[in-house]
Amino acid sequence: MTDLALLIFQLLLPVALAPLLTGLVRRIKARLLGRRGPALVQPYRDLARLFRKEPVLAFNASWLFRGAPYVSFAVVWLAMAAIPTFATTPSLGLGLDLIAIAGLLGLARILVALAGMDVGTSFGGIGASREMTIGALAEPAMLVAIIALALVAKSTALPDLSKAMSEGVGLRVSLALALGAMVMVAIAETGRIPVDNPATHLELTMVHEAMVLEYSGRHLALIELGAMLKLTLYLSLIGCIFAPWGIARDAGMTALAAGAGAWLAKLAAGGLALALFETVIAKMRVFRYPEFLGAALLFAILGVVFLYISQHLK
Amino acid sequence: MSGLAFDIAHLLGALVLTLSFALLYQRRLTAAINVVAMQAAVLAAAAAWQAVTRDTPHLFATAGIALVFKAIAVPLLLHWLVRRMNISSGVEAVFGVTLTMGLGVGVTALSILLVLPLTAGETILLREDLAFALAVALIGPLLMIARRNAVIQVVGFMSMENGLILAAVGVKGMPLVVEASVAFSVMVATFIFGVFFYQIRERFDSLDVSRLEEMQGERQP
Amino acid sequence: MSDVDQWTLIGVAQATFVGLAVGGCMTNRRPVLIVPLYALAALTCVVALVAALGTLLAPDADVVTRRVLPVGLPDIKSHLRLDGLAAVFLVIVNLGGIAAAVYGIGYDAHTTEPARVLAPFPLFLAGMNLVPLADDAFTFLVGWELMSLASWLLVLTGHEQADNRRAALVYLTMAAFGALALLMAFGALAGAGGGYTFDAMRRSTPSAAIATLAAFALLLGAGSKAGLAPLHVWLPLAHPAAPSHVSALMSGAMTKVALYALARGLLELAGTPQWWWGGLLAVIGGLTAALGALQSLTQNDSKTLLAYSTIENIGVITAALGLAIAFKASGQRLEAGLALTAALFHALNHGLFKSLLFLGAGAVLHSTGTRELDRLGGLIHRLRWTAPLVLIGCLAISAVPPLNGFASEWLVFQSVLDATGLGHWELKFAAPVIGALLALAAALAAAGFVRFFGIAFLGRPRDAVAANAHEVTPAMLAAMAGLAALCLAFGAWPGVPLEPLGRAAGMMVDPSGAAGRLFVGQGDGRTAWLAIAPHGDLTAVYSGMVAALGLAALTGIAVGVTSMASRTPARRAPAWDCGFPEPNPATQYTASSAGQPLRRIFGGPALAARDRVEMPPAGDLRPATFASAMRDPAWHYLFDPLIALVSRTTERLNALQFLAIRVYLSLMFAALIGLLVVVAVTR
Amino acid sequence: MTTLLVVLGVPAAAALVLAFIANWRLAAWLNVAACAVTLAASAALFVAERPAPGGLLLVDDFNIYLIALTAFVALTTAIFSATYIAHEVMHGRLTPTLLRFYHAMYQAFITSMLMALSADNLGLMWVSVEAATLSTALMVSLYRTPAAIEAAWKYFILCGVGIALALFGTMLMYLAAQPALGDGMAAVTWSSLLAQAAKFDPALLNVAFVFLLVGYGTKVGLAPFHAWLPDAHAEGPTPISAVLSGLLLNVALYAVLRFKMLLAANPKALAPGPLMIGMGLLSLSLASLMLYRRRDIKRLFAYSSIEHMGIAAFAFGMGGPLANFAGLLHMTMHSLVKAAIFFTVGHISQVKGTQRIADIRGLTASHPALGWALVAGVVAIAGLPPFGVFTSEFLVVSSTFARQPLLALPLAVGLLVGFGALMLRLHHLAFGQPSPNASTGRSVGLELSLVPVWLHLALALVAGIYLPAPLVAWFQSVARLLG
Known about the structure:
Helix content of chain C: 55-70%
Order of helices and strands of chain D: HHHHHHHHHHHHHHHHHHH
Radius of gyration of chain D: 21 Å
Oligomer: heterotetramer
Number of strands of chain D: 0
Strand content of chain D: under 5%
Order of helices and strands of chain C: HHEEHHHHHHHHHHHHHHHHHHHHEHEEHH
Structural class of chain C: mainly alpha
Largest interface: A-C, 89 and 88 residues
Distance between the termini of chain D: 28 Å
Number of strands of chain C: 5
Helix content of chain D: over 70%
């Protein structure tokens, strides 16, 4: 019974908190730039407004266009649910490991890209094509990073991963490299600077925004919420692997509360780091992506090699 | 075999080979025909001599065929053919005579080198005969290669065949020599008919390339 | 089911195939026969499928039955053997066969010369059914070549077009190359004594050199048929040239039969496998996968695109197979079983979704008459049923959960993770590279199929043919729907097919020991259909059911909550397009523009891809032009030079036909003299 | 013995009779009838008592099926010839006088081949092969076109020289045998030679074999003695091309193999293998490459015959039970398939009025029966299953690779190159938009004249799947003798 309650809690909490995280990042960024910035709850207001508004569909939009926001949101949500955020036991991590999460995020990307091409505008096409390009570049780095982690944990299931990482792995160059790779992949996948700019609406620099240009009303709300959730997902993922402290291993109330607190702290720290990073760096050209993500792949492979060596010496 | 018998057989064999070289040397068609006729006559004599000394009467038949057919009938026929078809009597040589002769000497040397060690257990006569015969048989094709003319190819073939018959005659107790010489004669006759009926004056490889292409069936546009 | 029944079924099926081929010859004059012949072909495939499933699903893993027929090579006869591995491939072949035949009912009614398809079609199926059953080299190669020969005729169906004839020529020549290579492999394994039965080869212990020689020949022979780079060049030519249901069979089934040969040969026949064969194979597989996916992404012809994607998937399967060999050679049986299971599962899945996609491309071709992506668009509105079915195929091949393509790629990745634990440092270092290549291939495939579906089915029609497309016949839809349903089912419950596949794989990697129980995780503790846990504990689990049902439930919640929160009905309006909507459909992204970023990033080095834009100076009224060119490196570096070499040699040698008799005589004379000299010298 | 005499006597008598029959239609069918009787008699050989060895004639495991094969192909070719010449006469390419000559020569040719096959006496064999050369050379020139005459002339000269060399080789063989067998017939009788071969002087045997290989090898069409073959096949009447390729080459190879057996029986003799392997490979590679530039359809398949004789020679050169078996099978299958191809090609050139490959296209579309027959024939000759050529190539390539991988490579490359060339031409001939028919062309349906084609291909097909036990037993006993 508690399991079920916990599961529901784990499902709902990230969705509820995702806009807050986005709001936090925006706020910090604004502050860093010397502006006052919007309220922390501004994303909630935006979403609510979008839900109220009348959705407008292009004449030739198909069922795929209408369905994609729901399914892609559900996909990200499912992936989120598989990550041990504050507790391991009831998570779906048993059925969906790290590779499956990567796969689910791929599905979400495909759905949104297809929706972008549905209306038949050139912006949709440009967005979809670039989004899939980024995905293609990010995936190898992600997978090799997973290999590095699996070398430590002997597992790809997140609860095991997080457990193994919390049990005296210590500081290692190899894991730092894997972390670097993972962070770079996360930046690319969540459409943050320097790969994409979530705030821009300047046509030729858009990737994600270009794809969802035709959406409005509740469809857009779901897409936006999905994007926010994805950011939460990546921060939680990195948190649960590289900062596996505080995650509850049992259903005890104290442990759970501590876990939740730790998670919130991790999210906040992650948001702060992201805002800092985005403030000091500039967006790069489209054809610089291969260099950025190639570096991620290189980091990940180096991580694997270092792990081989350290395990061999042990 | 007595010394004299051996000497005569040896002489005849050597004569056949010498005539082969004479053939290589010829530049005129009619002369070549005459030489090959002479070679056939010597061959007939050699066969007859073997028939006498070895008491193998069937070799007389071989000798007879060689004399009547190859030394008399075929050369007459060839002469008639040359006149009848207005084949020019000059023979276009591909290689110079010197080179041809040189090749002939080489071939002869090879024959001797090949045959003599092979037949170590045989009589001296047979060994020599065989070496000469092989040389003659190889000089025949050499002539065919070295001259551009249909009739000279018949002559070359006849010379080659003379060599073979010489060898067959020399081998003691070789059966079917008569049959072989008959078969060869038929072949030669067919050759000549070929030349005659098909009016093959020259080889098709005359320098006229356009004609060549027309003939090959392959290069038609 | 007793084995008598299975062999009877197989015998009946093969005889029916031959009969159907004879019947197929008559369809030019009697087109009315087309439908019954296809229906009968589908039924025959069902019969063969039942026979194969009988072995595959038998609870005792080592069920192996044999037959010896009094035909074939004298003194050796024709040996047949049905075991788990053979049964797996028979299932793949016959599933594809059923779909293709059912599809054919609706597809082939209007061709001018139906006999060109209907006569070889059953023979093609017969050949593919014979190869996995063969248990001696001769029978194997007869089946193999029958398969090539029949599919060659099928490629020639559209023989009026020069491109198709060229494709057929390249195909058949490559097939002959492959067969010769296999022949040599079998020759090496059989030895000078002529032990051509596979049993004799299993018993013999060839020296390492011979085994390696045979393994290389096998790799060349089976690899060329499967489409491993750089021997893949025939595949993108031949597969698209055939009628679509045949393309589906060629891509979905025939390439798998080639992989069967590779698996059977390297794991069982070629003596004790050596670790580096596996490593080499895995690297080749990874490279093939990445190259295939990349090429697929740059094609503008729907069926060529699918053919390149086949090359990609063959690469994935080969990589897993290579890992299986490496594990087996290192004595890691459990991991070997897992890798082989992954290969088999991906082969099965690829058979399903690639057939589905080829049938879908065929439906598009059927209703629009074109394979050019740039003339399509908006078909989702016209082909109401085909579109979702093709979408399922696209998602499956893009390896995303909850579809079957993900389940098998997940297993392959698990094997790659295992490979990091291999003893040889070469293999250890290769593992992350192979993993990266496979991940790149999967992601490129996803990009490629987004492009394929997006250009063909989404957007606005780019041409009248697309605007006027019509939905295809029920039989064609039924074939696609069946395959799509299997893709979904195997995605949601991968454990169901994996259990028998794991048994079959277990038999191959460890025939002596606890056969079939090597690949555990099913049956004990957790129910097989709920999740797959290859290592038998909790370290790596994937539950297709959680993914599928979870996704369905969460989508339902999202829809439900949203519809409660927001009741305003949607309004239709012109597209927004940043305020400047352009009615001309030519302004949409085209197939080549959709592939441009990746073509530019990877294509430059790998495919010599060049985009050339000619922008006239200001004031010049000429239109700007864009040209995109690329060249398959295999043609450029390997086959073109070979063809040029043959051409030059023949040109030179041809003079030999036009010499004078004299010269021929001198050749003869010289040869005689030469031989005499040789004899004189060697004496 | 009587049966064998009937086999030899019927065609000989028919040759005499046909020389005097002016009505060519009657002659054509008499020709068929004579061949049918010959075939029946040769079939009776299988049950008849074999003659005691040592005489002029011999029936053993080696020649018994070759005699039957020769009689069979002679019959089917005669059937094909009957329809072929009808068309040629109708279009004035042949006159009744020429046909009288043609039919007589046809039977004479068959007689000489059967004689060569059944000869126990090496001299008789030599005379028969020469007679076969003469009779076919005359038939090659039947059309009297300049090209035909040149082809016949080339054939005469090259094979004449070859045959002369073979005689010299035979003499050397006698010389080698003389010490063991004494003077006279025994020393030229094959069966007694074989019994005593171990006692012969190996050095003499070697030289003898060189002459015999060059001599009879010319007739086999082995490179570099092959020059006569493509032209003789291309310029003569097609039935003659069929028997040349299908039968004469076999007979010549048979003669070579008889001598090879003698060498194999002498342990000290130089192994003839390397010579045959070398020539086989040379023929195979040269012919494969030459196939690419052919413009004449009959010359194309003539080169393919050289290729296949090369394969057979290679197989015999490799030796051993498997390769020898393969070689024997290959000879047989090549006869059947190549004859079938020439029948088809004869039809095609009559339908299209040309032998130029460039002018023949799309046969499967315009003439399905002919086109598919050609496809089946080429597929069979290219060594694809389920035809018998595949079985032999399977054994040759695989057994070679098992023993000498380095030799198998050029073999495989040669096969592949030849395969590519044949398929290149086949795609052109059989597929694509059909080319126009000749105005004087004949119409072809499923008529009697195509029966031989299908009969041959069906036999090759059956052999590809199942070889009857007696045939296997003969092949194996011969393979043992071949060493």
